[in-house]
């Protein structure tokens, strides 16, 4: 970043001469170092998964969730600053409930994400605040079907079939592209999600991590956003580990063959 | 020349007469004292429920009466909440709709946390009792009597009543409205006190409730022979049956009733 130190990066809402907003870009940097989050959209459901780096052995396993429920059949996961994510989810819940009390029906996912997008964008416009240090993946089921979006610190959001953010996003995206998400069942998507998180963690192997997976599906959870049950989580972890070992074995075999040559 | 700057640009009193300030303050002005609900308007009649050894059975018909007019015939008055509870509501239908929305909000909020706790019947009853008593203390009651049924924290059958005054009580058989006079005596023949619950199976409880719904249709002039029935057990959770009909009715006695309608006595 050549323009760093020119003074254009010190305050929010100020463009640099070449048309960049540095505070927003720095916020994205905060996201890039966070644990990997992914979201998958299948034909009938949504799956969220996140890699939680264990920063202390004293932390209680299964607590300090990074996947949260915004309302009934809408969930969110985020990479970046944890408290910023908590705040965004809290705002999402307020939006969900106020829409319900006004219109006596549930908010649609595209409308919710639009409201949240505007909210996040406002934090790039004022000097008294800083942008959100998170990229969040938000998805759910409404009367029009399944939806998955990714919302960035700038306030821009895009619809996805599979979305990834955080440190391991690059390899996660590669793996997501290989999946046939239109044919995949939501149950199988849970396993693939685990695999992708395990794979994305490979570059960060020295640190311990915990995996968190949730899903939304008419068939499996009555349309509610819920964490996957214990046995399915274990099954998914096992599947991920097996797949990873398979790949490693293949690599070793390849290497052996090369040696022979 | 008008010297008051606040009057500049306004219609002059000379041309239009003095401004009627009540127009600008139409909302705040009260020509009548504040009034809260004085009586229910569209109403639902009895809700009846009974415990059996594995759970509870609860039923309510689908009628919304406008006074003596059978105005709406497809009103659902049983509301499952969470995985092991149901709320049956009689009384004012608009207040019923409000309460049902409160219950939905409660459920949504409960789903935020994944702490292993689930919303159970005793919690829902406690909450509803607080809401009803708060509203009666504001002299603006929600005009309903309700029965909350389901399983408690230890998985035992739970049945408790709460009404527009915040009055609450628990019993192995419960009924609201006319059901308290017409159905309870029949249900008490099946289960008289708490220790009888152990002896009763689902089949017996169901049949007793069905029989009571029929009796209620015979004798309660604000009732319907179409009703919903919910069974809650640990094994099967909430089983919702809608649009049941009271079968094997016999109205032969009707011809002997004299003194009503257009008949000559």
Automatic annotation (TrEMBL), chain A:
Per its UniProt record, what InterPro entries does this chain match? Ntn_hydrolases_N (IPR029055), Proteasome_alpha (IPR050115), Proteasome_alpha-type (IPR023332), Proteasome_asu_N (IPR000426), Proteasome_sua/b (IPR001353)
Task: Using the UniProt annotation, give all residue ranges assigned to the region (Disordered).
Answer: 235-261
Sorted alphabetically, the Gene Ontology BP terms of this entry are: proteasomal ubiquitin-independent protein catabolic process; proteasome-mediated ubiquitin-dependent protein catabolic process
Question: Which residue ranges does UniProt annotate as crossing the membrane?
Answer: none
User: Would you tell me the Gene Ontology cellular component terms?
Assistant: proteasome core complex, alpha-subunit complex
Query: Acidic residues: which segments have biased composition?
Result: 244-261
Is the keyword Lyase assigned to this protein? no
Q: Does the keyword Cell wall biogenesis/degradation apply?
A: no
Residues annotated as domain Proteasome alpha-type subunits: 8-30
Q: Which family does it belong to?
A: Belongs to the peptidase T1A family.
Describe the task this protein carries out. Answer: The proteasome degrades poly-ubiquitinated proteins in the cytoplasm and in the nucleus. It is essential for the regulated turnover of proteins and for the removal of misfolded proteins. The proteasome is a multicatalytic proteinase complex that is characterized by its ability to cleave peptides with Arg, Phe, Tyr, Leu, and Glu adjacent to the leaving group at neutral or slightly basic pH. It has an ATP-dependent proteolytic activity.
**Name recorded for this polypeptide:** Proteasome alpha-type subunits domain-containing protein
Which lineage is the organism of this entry classified under, starting from the top rank?
Eukaryota, Fungi, Dikarya, Ascomycota, Saccharomycotina
TrEMBL record, chain B:
- GO biological process annotations for this chain's record? proteasomal ubiquitin-independent protein catabolic process; proteasome-mediated ubiquitin-dependent protein catabolic process
Please indicate if the UniProt record lists Nucleus as a keyword: yes
- Indicate where this protein resides in the cell: Cytoplasm; Nucleus
**PROSITE patterns assigned to the protein according to its UniProt record, in alphabetical order:** PROTEASOME_BETA_1, PROTEASOME_BETA_2
Task: List keywords of the entry alphabetically.
Answer: Cytoplasm, Nucleus, Proteasome
Xref: InterPro entries? Ntn_hydrolases_N, Proteasome_beta4, Proteasome_bsu_CS, Proteasome_sua/b, Proteasome_suB-type
Membership in a protein family? Belongs to the peptidase T1B family.
Its biological function? Answer: Non-catalytic component of the proteasome.
What is the protein's name according to its record?
Proteasome subunit beta
Q: Give the source species.
A: Wickerhamomyces mucosus
Source organism phylogeny: Eukaryota, Fungi, Dikarya, Ascomycota, Saccharomycotina
